Amino acid sequence: MSTTSGRRRLGRVRWWNYLLLAGTAVACLFPLYWMFIVATTDTATATEMPPEVVPGGNFFHLAGLVLETVPFVQSLLNSLAVATAIGVGHAVLCALAGFAFAKLHFPGRNALFLVVVLTMTVPTQLSVIPQYMIMSELGWVDTLQALIVPGLASAFGIFWMRQHIAVTISDELIQAAHLDGASAWQVFWRIAFPIVRPAAFVLGLFGFVSAWNDFLWPFIVLKSPERFTAQIAIKALQNSYDVDLGLAMSGSFLATVPLVALFVIVGRRMVAGILDGAFKG
């Protein structure tokens, strides 16, 4: 009898859990659906009350206008190149720095790590001017490397990988590798990195998404339309006096589709990497 009651209670809990998850999923997907609705209509329809909830039939027309107004395909390729480079840089360089802070002993290690952590308290906007001056001195203004190089690593990524490596990889394993004649680089690349690869993959994915959605720095440093990223191309769809919501949302939807496809493809691996870090951390 008690077993049956327990099963009934468990069933009720599961039902409410599924309902909560379904409601959360709808709330998360609704902005994307609303973006598509506006991308298939016009500004007048988008501002109607009550709002439209059924897509219109102008999506392909507006998408064609997006491609005619700005070099949008080239902008998507630029965003893909920048985001991929930054994602790979986050996965490898942050893991390398985290390994150094966690397992290597050198003078000033703790002080230097404290400086890295403190940089997370500095607003990003404060670094724009000195960063632009550096890019200007290097002759990188209006180039994609001005977006890639500053974003190859981050203080948060270094902190995250340092904490993950510290609790995941034992000192005895590293000492055994050194006794076998392995260098510090060999220990990292052949032993440490394969172990923390799931966490590094998740960090690289976060870096990819952040670089894809970045607007402020590309808007400042890029001048030529053929070097625009997707977010700057969307801004170029708007003129100085008014905003065509249908055109802007059509461009936004086209820029969002690659991210949705990415999460569909690697979503399960991303969740596995997050859970791996949670259980081991």
From TrEMBL:
Keyword Oxidoreductase annotated: no
The UniProt record lists the keyword Transport: yes
UniProt xrefs under SUPFAM superfamilies: MetI-like
Primary localization: membrane
GO CC entries: plasma membrane
Occurrences of domain ABC transmembrane type-1 (ranges): 76-266
Cellular compartments annotated: Cell membrane
Entry keywords, A to Z: Cell membrane, Membrane, Transmembrane, Transmembrane helix, Transport
Transmembrane annotation, as ranges: 15-36, 76-99, 111-132, 144-161, 199-220, 245-266
Family of the protein in this entry: Belongs to the binding-protein-dependent transport system permease family.
Protein name per its UniProtKB record: Cellobiose transport system permease protein
Organism: Saccharothrix ecbatanensis
Classification of source organism: Bacteria, Bacillati, Actinomycetota, Actinomycetes, Pseudonocardiales
